[in-house]
C-alpha cells in the first residue's frame, strides 16, 4: 500500500513538472513550443507520410531525415487516426512516460520502500522524465523498450522460459527501431547467450531479429538513392576522422556525459563488490549479467554515439543504470552502518547528478523553448506569411517545413541526400566545401529557388546570392547559432525580400532583432 501511495505521489510530481514546463513556455509564447527543432522534424515527416505517403521532411521528396524510424512512423499513424496536431508527440510521450513508471513499479515492488523510492524518483529527477516528455522526441519510448529488454533478459536468465525470450526479441526489434543505439546493448546480450549460456541458436536469432529495423529501413533508403543509415547518423555520429579526431570526440562525450559517468561509478562498485563473493570468473560474469550488459552498452555509446543537446541522448542510459544498480542499492541501504563509506559516496554521487541533470536543466528547458520560439517559429511564420509554397534553401529545417508547404534544399544534409553525400567526409565539422557550394548554387538557380535562410557558419553561400538581412536572438542555448541570415537567390528579388523583412520586423518578439543589409 505504501508503494502505491508513493507511486501516486511520483505521478503527481511528474504532472506538476510537466504543467510547470508548459506554463513557463506559454507565458512568453502564448502556447507550448518544443525545446528542440528536431521535434518539428519528426512532425513534418510524420505529416508528410500520413497525408501524402512520402517519407520525407517535405511531401516533395524522400529523405532519410529521422534517426528514429519507429517514432516517426508512430506519429504518422496517430496523425492519420486523429488528424494533424502539433502536440501529438507530447501526449504520446505522456502515455509512454506513465507506462515506464508502471513497468518500473512492477519490477521494484520486490525491493524495500527506500530502494523503490530512490530508483523511481531517480527516473523522474535524474533522467529527467518530464524533460524527455516535453521534448517531443523518441527518448521516452526508447527508454521504455530498453527497460523491458533488460527485464525480460533478467527473467529469461532466471526462468529460462520461451515467453521471456520471445518478449526479449519483440522489444529488441522495437528498441532498435526507436534508436539504433539499442544495438550497443543487444550485442552484449547476444554475446552472453552465446558464450556464457551456450544458447547458440537463440543468440543468433536475437541478433538477426534485432537488426531487422536497420536492414529493412536501410534497404528502402538505398532504393530511394539515400544512405543505408539515416542521414543524421552519417552526419552527426562519431565517424572515424583520424585517431586524434576520434579520441577528441570520445573525450567530449565523456565530458558532456559526466552525469552518467557519475552513476556508472556506482555500477562499477557494484560489479566489483559482487564479483568478490564469487570464486570462478564465469560465476562473476553470471552474477553481474545485467550490470555488464549496461556497462558494455554505455562504453560503446561513449565511443560512437552522442551526448548532450538538452541532455537527451544519454537520458536512457541514466534509467538503465538506475535499474541495474537497484539490487546493490538494496544491499547498501540495508547495511548502511557497515557500508558507511559506500552509502555516503552514493548519496554524494546522486546529489551531484541531481544538480547537473535537474537543477541546471530546469531553467535551460525554458530557455531552449524560448530560443526555438524566437528563431525557428519566427522563421516558420515569416515563410508562412510570404513563401509558404516556395522553394527555400535552409539548414535548420524542422519548424519551417512543418508549418509550411515548402520545397527544401537543406545545406546541412538531413533533408537533402545530395548535400549529405557532399558533407559526408566533413565528419560533422563545418569546413570550407567548394563542391557543396557549387551544388547549392547550381541547384538553387536551375530549380528556381527564391531565398536562403541559413546559419552562415554552417555553409558558405555562393557569391551570386545577395545578402539581405539577419534575424538574431538573445541568450542562445539550443539553436545552431544566434543569427540567421537571409539571402535572395536572384539579385532582382533582393528589394522585395528587404521590404518583407522590414514589414515582418514589426511583429516579432521584442528581444528578437531583424537587421536589413543595404
- How far apart, in Å, are the first and last alpha carbons? 71 Å
SS elements, strand count: 6
Strand content: 5-15%
From the spread of the alpha carbons, the general shape counts as globular
Spans of at least 5 consecutive residues with low confidence: none
CA gyration radius, whole angstroms:
24 Å
Number of helices: 21
- Could you report the average pLDDT, rounded to the nearest whole number? 95
Structural class: mainly alpha
What are the main properties of this structure?
518 residues, mainly alpha, six-stranded mixed sheet, 21 helices, globular
Give an overview in words.
The structure is a single chain. The chain has 518 residues and is mostly helical. The protein is 66% helix and 6% strand. The chain contains 21 helices and six strands. It has a six-stranded mixed sheet, with helices on both faces. Helix 7 (139-159) crosses helix 16. The radius of gyration is 24 Å and the shape is globular. The mean pLDDT is 95.
Amino acid at each position: 500500500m505504501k508503494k502505491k501511495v508513493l507511486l501516486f505521489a511520483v505521478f503527481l510530481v511528474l504532472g506538476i513538472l510537466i504543467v510547470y514546463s508548459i506554463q513557463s513556455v506559454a507565458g512568453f509564447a502564448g502556447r507550448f513550443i518544443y525545446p528542440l527543432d528536431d521535434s518539428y522534424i519528426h512532425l513534418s515527416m510524420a505529416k508528410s507520410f500520413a497525408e501524402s505517403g512520402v517519407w520525407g521532411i517535405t511531401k516533395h521528396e524522400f529523405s532519410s531525415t529521422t534517426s528514429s524510424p519507429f517514432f516517426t512512423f508512430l506519429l504518422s499513424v496517430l496523425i492519420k487516426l486523429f488528424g494533424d496536431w502539433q502536440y501529438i508527440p507530447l501526449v504520446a510521450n505522456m502515455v509512454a512516460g506513465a507506462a515506464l513508471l508502471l513497468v518500473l513499479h512492477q519490477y521494484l515492488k520486490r525491493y524495500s520502500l527506500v530502494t523503490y523510492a530512490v530508483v523511481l524518483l531517480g527516473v523522474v529527477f535524474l533522467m529527467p522524465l518530464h524533460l524527455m516528455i516535453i521534448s517531443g522526441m523518441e527518448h521516452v519510448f526508447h527508454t521504455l523498450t530498453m527497460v523491458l529488454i533488460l527485464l525480460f533478459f533478467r527473467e529469461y536468465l532466471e526462468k529460462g522460459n520461451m515467453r521471456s525470450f520471445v518478449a526479449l526479441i519483440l522489444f529488441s526489434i522495437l528498441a532498435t527501431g526507436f534508436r539504433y543505439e539499442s544495438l550497443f546493448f543487444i550485442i552484449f546480450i547476444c554475446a552472453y547467450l552465446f558464450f556464457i549460456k551456450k544458447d547458440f541458436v537463440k543468440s543468433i536469432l536475437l541478433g538477426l531479429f534485432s537488426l531487422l529495423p536497420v536492414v529493412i529501413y536501410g534497404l528502402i533508403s538505398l532504393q530511394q538513392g539515400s544512405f543505408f543509415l539515416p542521414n543524421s547518423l552519417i552526419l552527426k555520429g562519431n565517424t572515424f576522422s583520424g585517431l586524434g579526431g576520434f579520441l577528441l570526440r570520445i573525450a567530449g562525450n565523456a565530458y558532456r556525459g559526466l552525469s552518467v559517468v557519475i552513476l556508472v561509478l556506482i555500477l562499477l562498485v557494484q560489479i566489483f563488490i559482487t564479483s568478490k563473493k564469487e570464486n570462478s570468473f564465469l560465476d562473476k560474469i553470471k552474477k553481474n549479467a545485467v550490470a555488464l550488459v549496461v556497462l558494455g552498452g554505455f562504453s560503446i555509446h561513449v565511443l560512437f554515439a552522442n551526448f548532450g543537446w538538452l541532455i537527451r541522448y544519454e537520458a536512457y542510459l541514466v534509467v538503465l543504470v538506475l535499474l541495474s544498480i537497484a539490487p546493490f542499492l538494496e544491499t547498501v541501504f540495508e547495511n548502511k552502518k557497515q557500508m558507511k563509506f559506500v552509502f555516503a559516496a552514493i548519496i554524494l554521487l546522486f546529489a551531484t547528478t541531481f544538480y547537473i541533470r535537474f537543477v541546471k536543466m530546469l531553467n535551460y528547458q525554458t530557455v531552449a523553448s524560448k530560443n526555438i520560439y524566437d528563431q525557428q517559429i519566427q522563421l516558420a511564420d515569416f515563410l508562412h506569411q510570404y513563401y509558404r509554397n516556395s522553394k527555400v534553401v535552409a539548414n535548420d529545417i524542422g519548424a519551417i517545413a512543418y508549418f509550411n508547404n515548402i520545397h527544401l534544399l537543406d545545406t546541412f544534409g538531413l533533408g537533402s541526400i545530395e548535400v549529405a553525400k557532399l558533407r559526408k567526409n566533413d565528419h560533422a565539422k563545418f569546413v570550407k566545401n567548394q563542391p557543396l557550394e557549387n551544388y547549392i548554387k547550381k541547384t538553387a538557380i536551375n530549380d528556381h529557388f527564391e531565398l536562403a535562410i541559413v546559419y552562415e557558419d554552417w555553409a558558405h553561400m555562393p557569391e551570386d546570392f545577395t545578402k539581405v538581412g539577419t534575424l538574431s536572438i538573445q541568450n542562445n542555448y539550443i539553436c545552431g547559432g544566434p543569427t540567421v541570415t537571409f539571402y535572395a537567390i536572384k539579385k532582382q528579388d533582393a528589394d522585395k525580400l528587404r521590404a518583407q523583412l522590414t514589414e515582418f520586423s514589426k511583429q516579432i518578439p521584442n528581444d528578437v532583432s531583424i537587421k536589413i543589409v543595404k
